[in-house]
Amino acid sequence: MTRTHTVVDSPYGPLTLVATDSVLSGLYMTGQRHRPAEHTFGTPDPRPFGETVRQLDAYFAGELTHFDLPMQLVGTPFQRSVWAQLRAIPYGETRSYGDLADALGNPGASRAVGLANGRNPIGIIVPCHRVIGSSGSLTGYGGGLDRKQRLLAFERGAPDDALF
After folding, report:
1. What is this structure's pTM?
2. Residue 55 a catalytic site member
């Protein structure tokens, strides 16, 4: 297993991209909760990330609304099922933790969905920022609530402070 990483700029601060055997396995923001230790990211090497960077640039330019990248999402079966539900949330829309629990056929699992959401290893591309509280309020986000608000506003074409 070979791990490599690179750091790219974004409107939301530097993003660390991690690949395992040349497949995207991580996208981490500066100061992100549950961010792995730097030494686990492997050696610096931008080569495996060309298509990821191209799609991120198009997303931040407002030209891409759905990522199509090979990814290696490492987690428990439940976490991977939650992350699959995140990828099904359309660009510019949100779902509550309860909505995701219902979609998984386990309406009592809102809290577990929230925990799995917080452990998402590929932020932005697997859009955990699109999950909100049942009342419509912003709730926890590993990248910080300010970034979450800015990402949601961006996807809705609104000024950064227009939502919530």
Report:
1. 0.91
2. no
